[in-house]
Amino acid sequence: xxxxxxxxxxxRVVPLRKGATLEMVRFTCPDTAQAMLIAESFGTAxxxxxxxxxxxxxxxxxxxxxxxxxxxxxxxxxxxxxIVGAYVGSAHxxxxxxxxxxxxxxxxxxxxxxxxxxEDLDGPVGYDSAAQRKREFAADMGIxxxxxxxxAEGAVAAYGQVIGEAWxxxxxxxxxxxxxxxxxxxxxxxxxxx
Length: 194
Prior knowledge:
Layout: E1 16-17, H1 22-28, H2 32-42, H3 49-67, H4 73-112, H5 130-163, E2 172-173, H6 181-193
Antiparallel strand pairs: 1-2
Organism: Rhizobium pisi
Protein name: ArgG
């Protein structure tokens, strides 16, 4: 005999906004060897990668030590989760910006190699070409994103030491699941036009 159907509310699926991970940072930001190559090729400052990493690791550990009497174990974990997440998110954003700068530099360099294009020719004597400026900008962004990567790696290492487990990004619920307000407004405007 079949059981009568029960009216249970459907389970609500809440989409999550994924946070940046250290792996994503490592994928988008130059490592130490690449940062050294960039610095040598473009004549920019060589950053102290290990020093940046160690300083940020000490900074997070000392911060946790100073807060240890005022925060409980869970509060400390939540606080450090947010702090480390900010470092990782910043490095990831810089890495994405660096990747776009490299793409633009490659495009500009490829275009400037075409002799039939007047707009991509070198500038007046004493000025760099647009392609050269884009390459130099990409190099600067590479060094900056590398420095932020080292800071993030130090912060993640410190989190592991203080909390005793590996840091993972907090995946928060998407605030406006479905259509965004702009999208809904656009649909209403288009509907009004007929």
